[in-house]
């Protein structure tokens, strides 16, 4: 298919930067153990995340979808014809709302999905090509950082980098600053950044979203260990860890951990690493920060990303910001 080009910057077809696992070694040898959340997204993890998005407790995807449905037309009118670059594109379902809006205005459709999971990237790109006969897709299996550094100049009048789904919340404040500067580096003056963020709200709503009654989030969390087993010849026994997620009100973030159910030693042979776990010791696998619109607007402006429009839903649970460099 001529309309699809795929490039893999990580994983099996290593072109630029093979994942050496040094980030895993670093995280598991610290006093407070942690893992980079990007390791959630192997094929199984991406599938589980899709299931999470449809859970009754996980309001994020539904709410952002409502906002996109209401304002995609407005977004397309503001930006004019532009190339859509999406970081963490996953199944690209919400992006279809944007593609539809650009298509309705007869703008050319150029889409660059970027995801660490090559499997879901390829299958969703192929599905998109079937559904949008005029679409050109250039898919990149890469981390955000690598992908942003690799973007070629666009052939369209403008570009919009989309970072929706509140994945920004999975970055620490420092990582967030670095990320914003990578965004400004990747854009030309006048180009756009579309950001979707989960907003602060009572714990009673937040905690169930990360502790669903069907246990899908627990399975998603535990799957990170299966991914490490597979990628680094590990012997994590997932029955000996449990999911633990809570809202840290001081930091305004969900913290998701895996707690060791006994004292145990785990080996990752490919990394030449043995890790000791005490009974009850945890690995921090993810933070999911919840944002204040005024604070994030100031942060974006301070980095030169001027918020042009901010849209929310009727509960003010989720925010969508269109910024311009
Ligand atoms: C991808 N990211 C925005 C999700 C979140 O809500 O932070 C990942 C997730 N973790 C548990 N459930 C969903």
Descriptive report:
It holds the Pfam family Methyltransf_33. GO terms for molecular function: methyltransferase activity. Keywords: Methyltransferase, Transferase. This protein has an eight-stranded mixed beta sheet with strand order 1-5-4-3-6-7-14-13, sandwiched between helices. It has a four-stranded mixed beta sheet with strand order 2-12-9-8. A two-stranded antiparallel ribbon has the order 10-11. β10 (264-268) and β11 (273-277) form a beta hairpin. The longest helix has 21 residues, at 59-79. The chain has helices at 22-29, 43-53, 59-79, 95-104, 118-131, 144-150, 173-186, 203-209, 216-232, 293-302, and strands at residues 4-8, 33-34, 82-87, 110-115, 136-141, 158-163, 192-198, 241-248, 253-260, 264-268, 273-277, 282-289, 306-312, 318-324. By secondary structure, the chain is of the alpha/beta class. The model is unreliable at 11-17 (pLDDT under 50). The protein is built from ten helices and 14 strands. Bound molecules: N,N-dimethyl-L-histidine.
